[in-house]
Design goal:
Length: 360
């Protein structure tokens, strides 16, 4: 129930059975008064002690004052800045270099109010000590703060799983400093194209509501404890699932990224109740993004009643018809195939032939 801004003397009084009284020297005192206007970047205020705070300010200012030795039995008050320098800068007005370890102790003047500035990245522990007249350390106050003005770098986003409607991703970030003041991210913002989908602490995320075998642009931004934000990282990838190609009478194009795929093709039926088309299936593994062309065969046509011919179905169906009166014929159905890297017949990787024609 003590007030942080006041000074207290604390004694032990001993009384024996005869009524004799002995009083000890002052045994405990507050070690410093931390200004209520203490400034640690954007994150610390009101002289908060305890848990480490993080700041991305160029200057982290700490203000404290020594005790009044006329009123309290204190021989001296000192302060320390303890930690390892992550990047060149200055601490309390002294230049420091990367990797330098700090722990020197400096004395405060009687009733002196002092502000020190932390202007170098590092995980810093700032302590203020009080020593009694015997030179014994009696109390210490501590503030822990990380000064970090370095944005997360080397951010990567990778796809870890996918279905027809979902894509799972994982984000990884390298810690670029040796001492660890540049903190690894504690927050991630995930985007689907330009639409923000989530802000969360986890470095894994599942995009949902997607369409089968469709290309998407996924983006992520990482943020560390001090509030530094990484540059945006982008992943262009595709959902999984399957895609059916209906007959259109022309080539249909899709892009597939690296992965293993099953291909199935059915040839078209011949005209005038002609034969069914063939069926083929197989698997293919792509090592890079590829253009895939789907050619869906067209059904054969029914010829005129009597002499005459009709053209075959799209994608290679043979023409056909009939000769003579009261005869009906048909043309052949077109074949169906997939082609990779080009749309010529030389690029075909799987084919199912069309059905033959029928004539009566």
């Amino acid at each position: 129930g003590l007030n942080q801004q006041k000074t207290y003397d604390m004694y032990v009084m001993v009384i024996d059975q005869a009524g004799n009284i002995a009083i000890t020297d002052v045994i405990a005192k507050p070690s410093l008064w931390i200004s209520n206007n203490i400034t640690v970047g954007e994150t610390v205020s009101n002289g908060v002690e305890g848990a480490r705070k993080y700041s991305r300010s160029e200057t982290v200012a700490l203000t404290f004052r020594g005790q009044d030795s006329n009123n309290v039995d204190i021989m001296k008050t000192t302060y320390q800045v303890i930690g390892t320098v992550d990047k060149v800068g200055s601490i309390a007005g002294n230049s420091v270099t990367e990797g330098q370890q700090l722990s020197d102790e400096y004395q405060l003047g009687d009733k002196e109010t002092r502000t020190i500035q932390l202007q170098a990245d590092g995980n810093w522990t700032v302590k203020v000590h009080n020593y009694n007249k015997e030179g014994k350390l009696v109390t210490t106050n501590t503030v822990e703060v990380t000064r970090d003005i370095t944005s997360p770098t080397d951010v990567t986003i990778t796809r870890t799983a996918r279905t027809g409607s979902t894509i799972n991703v994982k984000v990884e970030v390298a810690d670029v400093t040796s001492g660890g003041a540049t903190t690894l991210p504690t927050g991630y913002q995930y985007y689907l194209a330009s639409s923000s989908k989530a802000i969360q602490a986890s470095n894994t995320y599942q995009y949902t509501g997607l369409t089968d075998l469709t290309g998407y642009t996924l983006r992520v931004i990482a943020k560390d404890k001090a509030g530094n934000v990484s540059s945006e990282k982008t992943l262009s990838t595709y959902s999984g699932g399957k895609k059916d190609f209906a007959y259109t009478g022309s080539a249909q194009q899709i892009t597939l990224d690296a992965g293993k795929y099953k291909l199935e093709v059915w040839g078209a039926q011949g005209g005038h109740t002609g034969g069914k088309g063939g069926y083929s299936f197989g698997t293919i593994t792509l090592t890079a993004n590829k253009f895939i062309y789907a050619f869906v065969g067209g059904a054969g046509k029914t010829g005129p009643n009597g002499a005459g011919t009709v053209e075959g179905g799209f994608n290679g169906g043979g023409s056909g018809g009939s000769q003579g009166t009261n005869r009906i014929g048909g043309s052949g159905g077109g074949g169906s195939d997939f082609r990779i890297g080009g749309n010529t017949v030389n690029s075909r990787v799987i084919v199912a032939g069309g059905g033959g024609r029928w004539r009566v």
